[in-house]
C-alpha cells in the first residue's frame, strides 16, 4: 500500500491532467514527486522555493484569478509559519483553497519539535469557514482530496504516516459508527483519523459506542447527538492525533442541552524534547492502545 | 484582448479622463491636459469629505498621483464592469491611509461619492483599511503590510495559467512596507521566474525606520527585475515608468515623494 503522501501526489497529478482549473503550489517539500506533473503543466505546478509566506500568498492570488489552488508542505510550515497569510490571503479575501499537509504531529519524531505541529487544527478553529479533514487511510485521503479539489471552499487536509489497516467511507463529512454500544453503554468514543485502530483495540472489551471521524470541521453534531442518545451516560471521549482537547468545545456545543462529561485525549501541549519514532511518541502521549484502554476505561468506568 | 465594453462613449461624457480599453495609450480620447489637471485637483475635495481637512499633508497624499495616473492612463479597468475577467488587476498592498485610493475610486465611478462622508463608520463600506468584499473595484482587502505582492504574484501566475496573457497585475506598496520579509520572498521568486505581467509600484516617502541603503530599486534589480525610479508627483514621468517595456521581467516603479517626516 502506498502512503497518504504518495497517494496525494499521484491523485493530484491525475487531477491536474483532468482539471484545467487546478493548480499546485509547493515550497520545495514533495517537489521531486511532482516533477512529472510539473513537466506536463509548468504553469500549474509552481514551486516557490523555501518561502512559505509566498506559498500561501500565491495560493490566494491564484484563487483570486479563478484557479483552484492546492498548497502543500509540512504542517509546521504550511499552517504555523504563514498563519497570518492563511487568515488574510485566503480567509479575509474570501477565496477558496486546499491546504494539504504531510507530517502530522510526530511523523518526523526524529527531527524534533521544529517539524512537529500538533497545534495546527486548533489554529484553524480560530478562523471561519474551514473544513478540516484527517484521513486515516490512503483511500480516504484520495476520496477527500478529490472532493476538495472539485469544490470551492477552504479545506485543510492533514495527512499522516500513521494509518489504520482498513479504509472507511468518508463521504459527506459524517462520522461512522464502527462499534455500537448497548443501551447500557458507558459512553461514546470519537476516534479521529489514524487513531481509530488503537482506539478499537483499546475498547474491545468495553461496552461503548465508537464513532470514526475523518472530517472534524465542521463537526458532525447530529452524529454525536444521535450516538449519545443511545448510550446510558452522556459521557464522551475524543481521541485526536493532534493537540489534546482541540474538539472539546465542539462536543460541548453539540451537547449544550445535555448534562455531559467530556475527556479530550491527544498530543500533550508540553514538549517531549525527545527524538525516536512515531510509535514512541504515541506512547509518550498516551495514545497507544494500552494507554488508551487505561485512560478511557478510567473515565467511563 | 478585445474591447468588450460599449461604454466608452458614455464615459467620454463624464467629467473624468477616459479609459482606453484597447491598451493603446493614444491621447485623442483623453481629456486635454487642463481638464485632467482640474479632475486631479478635484480629488482634494473628495479626500476632504473623508478627513474634514481641505489641506492634506504629504503623507495622506503620498500615493495620490501614482494612483491617479494608474487609473486614468494605465489600467484597463471599468467601473461599469469591475469584475470583467479581462481587466487588469490593481492590488493596493499598502492599505494604510486609503483616502487617496477611495478618492480615485470615487472620481473614476467605482464607488459613489456619497460614500465618502461616512468614511470609517460602522455602516460605511469604506474603512481605514479597504475590504474587497465591501468596495467595488478593490481587488484585495489590505491593511496588514506585506500581503499584496505575494497575492499579486499568485494573481499573475493564475491569469497566465488561464491564458490571459495581456492582463497586467499592478500592486502598490510603501517603502516602509518593504520591511516585511514576505515582500522579499515575492521579489526573489517573481524575478527568478521572470513574471513579466507583474508591476510593483513602491511609493517612497522615506518612512522606513532603517531606510534602504543603496536604494529601493536595487532590491528589485538584483533579483532580475526591470526598475525605474521617478518623481512620484510627475504624472507624465509616472505614466512613462508604468508603460515602459520590460519583456521577460517583472517591473518595479519607485515613485519618490516628499519625506513623511521632515
From TrEMBL, chain A:
GO terms for molecular function: magnesium ion binding. This is Transketolase. Residues 2-165 form the Transketolase-like pyrimidine-binding domain. It comes from the Bacteria. It comes from Actinospica durhamensis. SMART domains: Transket_pyr.
